[in-house]
Amino acid sequence: MLQEISHPTPHPVAFVGAGPGDPELLTVKALRALQTADVVIHDRLVSEDILALVGPHTRLRNAGKEGFGPSIPQSAINALIIEEARTGARVVRLKSGDPTVFGRLDEELDALHAAGIGYTIVPGLTSASAAVATLGQSLTKRGRNTAVRLVTGHDMQGYADQDWRTLARSGEVAAIYMAKRAARFIQGRLLMHGADPQTPVTIVENASRADERIVTATLATLPSALFASDVTGPALLMYGLAPRDARMTHTMPQQQEMI
């Protein structure tokens, strides 16, 4: 039986976390990778401010995926990374936030491993950290919660199921990614399992960016708050947390621009 022999590429593919969008939150190592790359294959949510930092001769290739919308198939993205790496180019696969958090990293690593191509991972600041900083809160707090959950609102099969009974307990905190379309589903599951309707839920849109907004709500008002505020950018639901700012209220679908 014939077996294809994979020749090692001269440079490993670098999977780089772009952070939530503010270029000042990019790590030094990530910046160095961007400025020395021959090609950057980036996600849809990577901000223009981050893309502006690439080297003058670097090629940009958009591999954007959008939940419930038109997307490049994952298999095509895998093939694109391998194709570029086999030319001998320095390839950066740029993912928003941290590539290890809901970034489909394992699928791309598996494809590189099968192709005999090496890789490195440069972690980035995940959006939950930027969002909670905006609120003036912490993800964990003595006497309130000793754990925090990073969960997704939808998966490959549709709306993602969670341990709703645990999340519904008083004092639980979760950062829910990709949850705009799933808000009513999430609300229903939590209420069904006994969550307090007055549990604060804060929507942080475009965390850390110049057009960042926060929308305050409760579990009871979450879907209507999202609709009334016309949240269109990437957003996180910070379940169990309200902004520290006393001027903010989490009992109405109210929004405030953050500077």
**Sheet with the most strands: spatial strand order:** 6-9-12-10-11-13
Count of distinct structural domains: 2
Our count of helices gives 8
Helices and strands, in order, run as EHEHEHEHEHEEEHEHEEHEE
CATH topology (level 3) name of the largest domain: Methyltransferase, Cobalt-precorrin-4 Transmethylase, Domain 2
Residue windows where pLDDT falls under 50 for at least 5 positions = 1-5, 246-259
Question: How much of the residues is beta strand, in percent?
Answer: 15-25%
Chain-wise SSE layout:
Elements: E1 13-17, H1 28-36, E2 39-42, H2 48-51, E3 59-62, H3 74-85, E4 91-95, H4 105-115, E5 119-122, H5 127-135, E6 149-152, E7 154-155, E8 158-159, H6 164-167, E9 174-177, H7 183-192, E10 200-205, E11 213-218, H8 222-229, E12 235-239, E13 254-257
Parallel strand pairs: 1-4, 1-5, 2-3, 2-4, 6-9
Antiparallel strand pairs: 7-8, 9-12, 10-11, 10-12, 11-13
Helix pairs in contact: 3-4
